[in-house]
């Protein structure tokens, strides 16, 4: 059985779907949702000041950033 994969929105690497981390933030009035690998999540969390845990769209736990990361567009 082949496992589903996803492509990280930050580094562009293909990873296993179950390792996907959801990250959300607001840009203007829009809520942006990104799929990150755990490495990128760590870096984004370190770079952004305030981080909250929220319920994700696909995952039970997602990360909400108080401001948009500079390196994800
Ligand atoms: Zn990544």
Describe the protein's topology.
Blueprint: E1 5-7, E2 14-16, E3 21-27, E4 30-36, H1 38-47, E5 51-54, E6 62-65
Parallel strand pairs: 3-6
Antiparallel strand pairs: 1-2, 3-4, 5-6
Helix segment count? 1
What is the CA–CA distance across the termini? Answer: 33 Å
The small-molecule ligands in this entry are: zinc ion
Provide the low-confidence segments as ranges: none
Q: Work out the helicity level.
A: 10-25%
Largest sheet strand order: 4-3-6-5
What is the percentage of strand-forming residues?
Answer: 35-45%
The residue-averaged pLDDT reads 92
The largest pleated sheet is described as:
4 strands, mixed
Helix and strand succession?
A: EEEEHEE
Structural class by SSE content: mainly beta
Highlighted features:
single chain, 73 residues, mainly beta, four-stranded mixed sheet, two-stranded antiparallel ribbon, 6 strands, binds zinc ion
Q: What would you note in describing this structure?
A:
The chain is mainly β and 73 residues long. The protein has one domain. It has one helix and six strands. The strands form two sheets. It has a four-stranded mixed sheet with strand order 4-3-6-5. The protein has a two-stranded antiparallel ribbon with strand order 1-2. The structure holds zinc ion. Residues 8, 10-11, 13, 36-37, 39-40 line the site of zinc ion.
């Amino acid at each position: 059985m082949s496992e589903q994969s996803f492509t990280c929105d930050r580094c562009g690497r293909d990873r296993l779907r179950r390792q996907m981390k959801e990250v959300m933030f607001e840009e203007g009035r829009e809520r942006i949702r990104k799929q990150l690998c755990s490495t990128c999540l760590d870096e984004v969390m370190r770079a952004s000041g305030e981080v909250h845990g929220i319920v994700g769209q696909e995952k039970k736990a997602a990360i909400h950033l108080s401001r948009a990361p500079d390196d994800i567009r």
